[in-house]
Backbone:
C-alpha cells in the first residue's frame, strides 16, 4: 500500500496548515568553540587533591585495621 493511500503528507504541507504565531521557531545557530585549555596549576592542584585524598583514605584504613 502506498504512503499516499495511508494519508501521508509531506512535512512542508503539514507545516503550511499551522498558523505562523503557533509555529515553533527554528533552533538558533550555536557556534562551536574549542574547549579552553586548562592552566597547568589547575592540573597540578587536581592531582594534589587526588593524592591527598588517597593518603587520607589509606591512613583511615590503616587505623581501622591496626589501630587501637
Residues:
Amino acid at each position: 500500500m502506498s504512503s499516499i493511500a495511508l494519508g501521508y503528507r509531506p512535512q512542508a504541507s503539514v507545516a503550511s496548515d499551522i498558523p505562523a504565531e503557533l509555529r515553533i521557531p527554528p533552533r538558533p545557530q550555536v557556534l562551536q568553540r574549542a574547549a579552553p585549555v586548562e592552566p597547568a596549576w589547575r592540573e597540578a592542584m587536581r592531582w594534589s587533591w587526588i593524592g591527598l585524598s588517597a593518603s587520607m583514605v589509606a591512613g583511615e584504613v590503616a587505623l581501622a585495621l591496626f589501630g587501637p
